Amino acid sequence: SAPAPTPEEIAYLRRAVAQYFREEIGETVWAFAGVRSLHDDGEGEPENITREYHLVLDNKFREAPLLTIYGGKITTYRRLAEAALGKLAPFFRMHAPWTAAAPLPGGDFLWDGVEARVTQAQHTWPFLSRNEARRLVSAYGTRLEQVLGAAASEDDLGPRFGPLSAIEVLYLVKNEWARTAEDVIWRRSKLGLRMTKDETESLERFIAGAASPSPGAGEADEHSVTS
Fold first, then answer.
1. What distance in Å separates the CA atoms of residue 100 and residue 36, rounded to the nearest whole number?
2. How far apart are the C-alpha atoms of 14 and 33, rounded to whole Å?
3. Rg (CA), the chain
4. Residue 93 burial by CB count (10 A; 0-12/13-18/19+): exposed, middle or buried?
5. Please, which residues bridge with residue 70 across strands?
6. How far apart, in whole angstroms, are the C-alpha atoms of residue 92 and residue 104?
7. 110 with 141: CB under 8 angstroms?
8. pTM reported for the whole predicted model
9. What is the spatial distance between Cα 69 and Cα 86, in angstroms, rounded to a whole number?
């Protein structure tokens, strides 16, 4: 219920990473462990069990169908989703599969067009540094216009929380279901690796305020968020 990496696992990963650096790595600032549900195919040892997804449909008479998904990985999640809907197609009206030819959100540009997008972003928002423009383009692609909108200066981005600006945080809250600082800095990005404790706490307070309408406010303003 609360997985965590063991000291031995952390040491193993540090040794593997250390092979690529001339100098010794510093302290480990963050670590996590995840649990992957795998289908027991009788192989015995966990490392030998297939990572391919396995779909099991329970279809009892006069009961709603129950689909259980074992395994799978992020690189095949779209195919898995279509396979899952295919299993449920006899019970629900479904659209034809469509994801094979559809780019990921914000990814509707050529694979080698990132630097051109970065240059375009700096032209549209001249106050962005090259590094910040590259980070934003890498994170949001063609959706960057939705993130920054009509911002004309650094001040229009609002307060800063380390590498994050308020306008980016509000986008994540409104459009990507972020509800806490942890959602933003670990689940929507890994920017927590570059943020101090004070910056994270300040971000948490900002999100809490953004998600709560001001007392007596009849309508949400541009910096408030309703759920």
1. 25
2. 15
3. 22
4. exposed
5. 54
6. 25
7. no
8. 0.75
9. 13
